[in-house]
Write a structure and sequence with these properties.
5 helices, signal, 13 strands, LD_TPept_cat_dom, transferase activity, single chain, alpha/beta, 252 residues, three-stranded antiparallel sheet, 13% helix
């Protein structure tokens, strides 16, 4: 049976045990009780700092951070998620940019049969691919390649078992990010949080962490808390903090 991981909000509702479909006017869903906040110095930054927060009686409380992460090789651009549309550079397929904005965090995935996490877990096989071919009707979906769908997956550069295909460990542990929820062709695909190559090695558009840091994040996150990723430049964080009811972080 094919295992599909769709990035649409509706599918994330299923995968995340009832995550709400609509965001509040502040961009953060009321039901979201955990936040991963990533702040970059500028839209061209290849690195950033990650903080985690939990909601306590409607107020955000600090949990951990800062933790260094790597971003896309060309920085950040506005993605499609829970936040209102923003003026500025918009994320496109192949641009090397990580998405800025607010996004649900979906299932965990990885190479092992099990993973220590409060998220639902999807073990990947050698035949799992995330489709990054804009013309494919399977664009921005993760599924098992079969004889029946091979034509629609051919050309994708995102095998989910990189350890078997590309001989690296980046996807041995990761989290699906709900970017481009309606799979709009060319708007960016296959966005994850995953293990970094190194502290000075950017990604193709994901957010990457040291393996020990992603282990801690995976163990802390819980599917029934409807966790979100908020990823912004420091300037946009300052501009949007009050409107989006974001937690206070001291920004030097």
């Amino acid at each position: 049976m094919n295992l599909k991981t769709l990035f649409g909000t509706f599918v994330l509702m299923i995968l995340c045990s009832g995550a709400p479909a609509m965001a509040t006017e502040h961009a953060i869903p009321v039901a979201s009780q955990q936040m991963v906040l990533v702040l970059a110095e500028s839209e061209n930054s290849q690195t950033a700092m990650l903080y985690t927060f939990y909601r306590d009686q409607a107020h955000w409380q600090s949990h951990s951070g800062p933790v260094p992460v790597t971003l896309g090789r060309t920085g950040l651009a506005w993605g499609i998620g829970l936040h209102p549309a923003q003026i500025g550079v918009q994320k496109r397929e192949g641009d090397g940019k990580a998405p800025a904005g607010v996004f649900y965090l979906g299932d965990a995935f990885g190479a092992g049969s099990e993973l220590v996490t409060g998220l639902h877990y999807q073990p990947m096989t050698k035949e799992h691919y995330c489709v990054d071919v804009p013309a494919s009707p399977l664009y921005n979906q993760t599924l098992i390649k079969t004889d029946a769908n091979a034509e629609l997956i051919d050309g994708s550069t995102e095998p989910m078992r990189r350890d078997l295909h590309l001989k690296d460990s980046q996807y041995n542990k990761g989290i699906f990010v709900g970017h481009n929820p309606h799979n709009q062709a060319g708007a960016g695909s296959c966005i994850f949080m995953h293990i970094w190559r190194a502290a000075d090695k950017p990604t193709a558009g994901c957010t990457a962490l040291d393996e020990s840091a992603i282990d801690q994040l995976l163990a802390w996150l819980k599917a029934d808390q409807s966790p979100v990723l908020v990823q912004l430049t420091r300037a946009d964080y300052q501009r949007l903090r009050a409107d989006w009811a974001l937690p206070l972080v001291t920004v030097p």
